[in-house]
Specification:
This protein is mainly beta. Helices cover about 0% and strands about 55% of the residues. Strand 3 and strand 4 form a beta hairpin.
């Protein structure tokens, strides 16, 4: 599933290599279900985020204990 700019996302927190990460889900208003759309991982340095890496491969969700869909 591809997200367009301006599309609301539901995010679910997780961790990747000791860094905070978030599974992103795109809601389908007609069903009330949000489907997996990607994963982003923050790289922290000091008190802030130094980088954000986006992974569009939703097959990664199971490796991070994230469901394929959530209630939106």
């Amino acid at each position: 599933m591809v997200s367009l700019r301006g599309t609301p996302l539901r995010v679910v927190p997780t961790w990747a290599n000791t860094q905070p990460a978030f599974g992103c889900y795109t809601p389908a208003p007609q069903t009330g279900i949000a489907g997996a759309s990607g994963l982003f991982v923050l790289t922290l340095e000091g008190d802030g985020a130094a980088a954000m890496t986006w992974f569009a491969d939703t097959a990664l969700f199971e490796h991070f204990g994230l469901p394929r869909s959530v209630r939106s």
